[in-house]
Amino acid sequence: MKRIAIIGGGISGLSAAFYLEILRGDGVSLDYTLYESSNRFGGSMFSEHVDGCVVEAGPDSFLTEKPWAETLARDIGLEDQLIGSNDAQRKTYILVNGKLVVIPDGLMFMVPTKLLPAIFTPLFSWSTKLRMAVEWLHPPRRAKEDETVAALVKRHYGPEMVDRLADPLLSGVYGGEAASLSVRAVLPRFADMEAKHGSLGRAMIAARKKMPSAIRRAKPLPLFTSMKTGMQQMVDGVLARVNRAALRTSSPVRELKFRDGVWQVTADGATEAYDAIVSAVPAPAASSLLRATQAELANELGAITYSSSVTVTLGYGKDVLDALPPGFGFLVPRTEGKRMLACTFVHTKFPHRAPPDRALLRVFLGGSRDEQILSVSEDKIVELVRNELRDILAINAEPRFSRVYKWKGAMAQYSVGHLQRLDRIERLRRSLPGLALAGNAYRGIGVPDCILSGKKAAEEIAGPSPRVTEVIPAAASSVAPQQVR
Ligand SMILES: Cc1cc2nc3c(=O)[nH]c(=O)nc-3n(C[C@H](O)[C@H](O)[C@H](O)COP(=O)(O)OP(=O)(O)OC[C@H]3O[C@@H](n4cnc5c(N)ncnc54)[C@H](O)[C@@H]3O)c2cc1C
After folding, report:
1. Would you say the CB of residue 61 lies under 6 angstroms from ligand 1?
2. Taking the CA of residue 386 as centre, how many other CA atoms within 13 Å lie in the half-sphere pointing to its CB?
3. Quick check: CB of 37 below 6 Å from ligand 1?
4. Which of 9, 325, 359, 371 counts the highest number of beta carbons within 10 A?
């Protein structure tokens, strides 16, 4: 029997456990133990229910076009709990000189594909609009080296596009900056489009034309998918379907050694032997654990940096609900001099999030330029968020409740050269039999990518999963999530 240790019980490690469980159920001779250092599973995926509202501490949803999260939800029997974003009401604003300006129609990420909205938007100055027009003549260019997202965007649309759109969008997803994130790792399609077409605008339109007309005319899927009572459902759903005896919370792995073809895992004061390891911890933690075994691999993992994030959720009554602009929320460019990076109008973005007479706002702070926010007290964070919301949205009302969640070192930063680093990591990893790496440090920071990384790690160690169609019956009870605020 193959003995496998999974280290890290966030969604990546849980996904690995679930797909190993499927293989076990299919008769593959394996056994696994999942070690989690904190007192609950889920990592940054955690939901609370407060005052009739669903409060997400970490991820609130996942991109529908990446299928692996939805597949997992189906595999654990939660298909009927999947909900789509309310895209008919989708509208996002950017704060420009203290005013909310709606992102114009036809802007795909930061590539304008419709003429009139791009001309008339107050989001950009006339010089940027001129750059947008000239961009259509951009010649194909195959960059030899990786570069920052800012460098590519500036080349096509100028610096204002970086400040007003690229940076705020990337700080929302990665907690990072366009000036340091790798275009090849973060926006590989843009690098390919530039190489083939030159103009990103023309490339987008060509891609759309190439789509089969049935797909072009089909009703688009919602951009985001979530779970009816919160993303925690996904964590609990997995926990209910894996081997309970294999799950250990408050069990940090302190030491990992590879001796004579056997992995030795030290946790809870004891050392146990395993044939294989799924490392599903953030890269710095993986780096320390692997240092004794493979220093070069540890150095490469240690070079992947992380930023921190703070989310603040505020619940309000009908007065605020009535006064808010329509839409999903707004992004705040750094140049606006605010501490908040973004604010989501949660009650609009998804159904089932708040009673109909309530407003639920979720604000993001932190990111690579504001690690100091972690040392600010929760009360002070709420105060500064309320002050900024007063300036931006004229909200003076007292919130019915507030919740603050601090996520230290939670967002991996794919800096320039990330993909080459992954190649080196892969080569070094292969020199250690039975080691698989999963998590948000590698090929995608979003929930679906993390789930895929866990599934691939399980398959690599124990063989490919059969097509998962049958739902494994839920165990008698699931591990109770602890509050982590
Ligand atoms: C505030 C926030 C909002 C986000 N929003 C979205 C979103 O809306 N959509 C989306 O797709 N993605 C979102 N993300 C990204 C996504 O949620 C994460 O990338 C993903 O959840 C990471 O999962 P993971 O399992 O790889 O890592 P983690 O969740 O970090 O889990 C790693 C686990 O390893 C444990 N651990 C660490 N060291 C040890 C050790 N030595 N021994 C044992 N255990 C250890 C930790 O305690 C932790 O539980 C968001 C992230 C954050 C922080």
Report:
1. yes
2. 19
3. yes
4. 9
